[in-house]
Specification:
about 475 residues; mainly alpha; two-stranded antiparallel ribbon; two-stranded antiparallel sheet; 21 helices
């Protein structure tokens, strides 16, 4: 095992990788409950979505670990699941069956896979200027921090200032603070497994405060009703055929663009932290990583779990010392168990449920309005995630160190980098922030007559982003 995963070469060991994989799992586990909640709002069977989410994340995380030996775990991506639910299947196009929505993901994944096989996706990554790559990592750090602050109730929306201080009279806010400060203490004391211990401390506090409780039943049977959704017959025709229409063509393009650059940003950010990004900004083993990630998108559509993608929460495991593919394998095995023991995971990683209108109004007044926090309006099931919020804030801070390497003295380099790193958290979307930076970088080079300095692929990608922004506004 030491020889296969190269423990000695990367300065790690079996115990460290196990702790890292567990920490990554605990910070990602919310997706098992969030994803089915979002998808079920559009008619996807809830129990089937739970099984698909858990087993999809398990299979692709294990594959990533074995194929690349890098500490990158995968699961159904936030954002794309909301697009599929509310823009493709749901309220805007109510006549689109959920199986067709999954077929859209399936087709998008095949296109991404084709771009990897042809070398185009790797070529785009290598064409991106180094300062923009660094800004992406910093922007994702701010994004993770924003998610943690929001999920912990430490901030909430405000009409003029956009955000304000959260309601500290609510017990879940204090659970988030306990998780944050305990993790910070363990890290300062250089205690091995600091993030994991912080999450467990927050779990104990949540049980003590009555914010969460031990589940009544520990076991639930898997449900495979969403598997092979693109090939299920809907109204007498396979869903896949119904996805290949002009009306859904732009949707496939927009999702492909998001999937393409979310992964790129995540890999660069986590890779900087884990030490497999070279000084010139290139990522070692990038083709293998992108190949697995693209196959994961196809798998997500096939299983009915929405697009599966590389998760930025992998940084939690990297912060624990994870440096090899054993870390995501451990994460994957824990996800596989969730298909059978999801009630136990919900207690720790999933947060707690609010079941009535009064609690929901309290939730909204405390700032939980993002799709990741308010789920399934038709079902009345709402979740918050204070137990892992502190860990996300800490992980976000660890990704900030690259900001010092950005060349702030050159305005035409600094401005695109700045727009990238603030655009990611403020739009709540990694690819949008990347698009801001790309378009600005390319435009400034053109205006200054330095167009030869821009890689041809940057023109293509910048134009694609600009087109997607314009079309999305119509």
């Amino acid at each position: 095992m030491d020889k296969f995963f190269k423990f000695a070469e990367r300065g790690t060991d079996l115990k460290t990788e196990f702790l890292a994989g567990t920490a990554t799992f605990l910070t990602m586990a919310y997706i098992i409950f969030v994803n089915p909640g979002i998808l079920s709002a559009a008619g996807v069977p809830f129990a089937g979505a739970v099984t698909a989410t858990a087993l999809g994340a398990a299979a692709m995380s294990v594959l990533m670990g074995l194929a690349t030996n890098r500490p990158l775990a995968l699961a159904s991506g936030m954002g794309i699941n909301a697009v599929i639910t509310f823009s493709v299947i749901g309220f805007q196009q109510a006549n689109v069956p959920w199986q067709v929505g999954m077929a859209v993901i399936f087709v998008e994944g095949l296109l991404i896979l084709a771009l990897v096989v042809t070398g185009f996706r790797e070529a785009v990554m290598n064409a991106i200027p180094l300062n923009l790559k660094r800004a992406i990592g910093v922007g994702i750090g701010l994004f993770i921090t924003l998610i943690g602050l929001n999920q912990g109730g430490l901030i909430r929306p405000a009409p003029v200032t956009l955000v304000s201080l959260g309601d500290f009279s609510q017990p879940y806010v204090w659970i988030a603070l306990i998780g944050f400060f305990s993790t910070a203490f363990f890290m300062a004391a250089k205690i091995k497994g600091d993030i994991l211990w912080g999450i467990l401390t927050a779990t104990a506090a949540a049980l003590l405060f009555g914010v969460t409780s031990a589940p009544a039943s520990a076991v639930s049977a898997p449900d495979f009703s969403t598997f092979f959704a693109p090939f299920q017959y809907v109204n007498g025709t396979p869903a896949l055929f119904q996805a290949l229409t002009p009306a859904l063509g732009f949707v496939i393009f927009a999702i492909m663009l998001t999937d393409f650059f979310d992964t790129m940003g995540t890999v660069v950010a986590v890779g900087e932290q884990a030490g497999f990004v070279n000084k010139d900004g290139s990522v070692r083993d990038i083709n293998k990583i992108l190949l697995v990630d693209s196959a994961a998108a196809v798998t997500g559509g096939l299983l009915g779990a929405s697009s599966i993608t590389t998760y930025v929460e992998s940084a939690a495991g990297v912060a624990e010392g994870g440096r090899t593919g054993l870390s995501p394998i451990i994460t994957g095995l824990l996800f596989a168990l969730c298909a059978f023991f999801s009630p136990l995971v919900q207690m720790i990683g999933g947060g707690f449920r609010l079941e009535n209108a009064a609690q929901y109004r309290l939730l909204v007044s405390s700032g939980f309005t993002a799709p990741a926090d308010v789920l399934s309006p038709g079902y009345g099931d709402y979740f918050v995630y204070p137990i892992t919020a502190g860990a996300l804030i800490i992980v976000g801070s660890l990704l900030m160190k690259t900001v010092r390497d950005i060349d702030w003295d050159k305005f035409d380099e600094a401005l695109p980098a700045f727009l990238t790193l603030v655009g990611i958290p403020l739009t709540y979307n990694i690819s949008y922030g990347i698009g801001f930076g790309f378009i600005t970088y390319t435009a400034m080079r053109l205006v200054r007559g330095r167009w030869r300095e821009v890689h041809p692929l940057m023109y293509v990608v910048s134009a694609a982003f600009l087109l997607s922004f314009v079309l999305a506004s119509w």
